[in-house]
Amino acid sequence: MPRTFFRKLLTYLSSKNELDVVLNDEVDRQSSRDRGNHQCRKFIRRDHIQGHKRIFRDYFTENSIYPWNLFRMRFRMSCPLFLLILNEVESYEQYFVQRRDSAGRIGLSSMQKIIVSLRMLAYGVTGDFIDEYIRIGESTAIESLKKFSETIVSVFSESYLQ
After folding, report:
1. How far apart are CA 27 and CA 23, in angstroms?
2. pTM of structure
3. Which domain of life is it from (predicted)?
């Protein structure tokens, strides 16, 4: 407890009621300050592998669920162009390389991070809108969009931006 608390305590020690007021004020102040320092987030097990498998099965297998023209309509580009961008972005920025977290769980694939970025750009949706399909959290989706945009400008600016 800070020094000011003890000064108040010595000042108001003359009566029991005043002491209670000072103690209650200090407890309220401490608890409100503690709440401000800690963010309470609930961990959601999103099953990233299932999200990657779903995307891959929907668009990239030989017998994919959705045809090429639907891929083009949804992502505003052809599938070969998407794969080219995927490879370039993955080789330039380590953020997009799939790796394990500190608990040993496999993280998001580069495909998931790039697709969430493209969907946010193509449709103008928020980060939490795509969570159920791609299995990615809102903060990660926003971070992916930022890193994807920076990487695209860095990698392709000389070739395509004039």
Report:
1. 6
2. 0.66
3. Eukaryota
Question: Residue 64's closest CA among 77, 79, 49, 50?
Answer: 79
Q: Work out the number of other CB atoms within 10 angstroms of the CB of residue 73.
A: 11
Question: Backbone phi, then psi, for 41, in 5-degree steps?
Answer: -120, 140
pLDDT, position 7:
55
Tokens of 104: 């040993």
CA distance 77 to 118: 10
pLDDT digits (tens, 9 = 90+) for 147-162: 999 999 999 888 876 6
Within its chain, how far is the Cα of 26 from the centroid? 37
Task: Scan for tokens 């300050």, then name that residue.
Answer: 33
Q: Which amino acid is at 147?
A: K
CA distance 58 to 54: 6
Amino acid identity of 79? Answer: C
Contacts of 60 (CB under 8 A, 6+ apart): 79
Tens digits of residue pLDDT in 105-124:
888 889 989 999 988 888 78
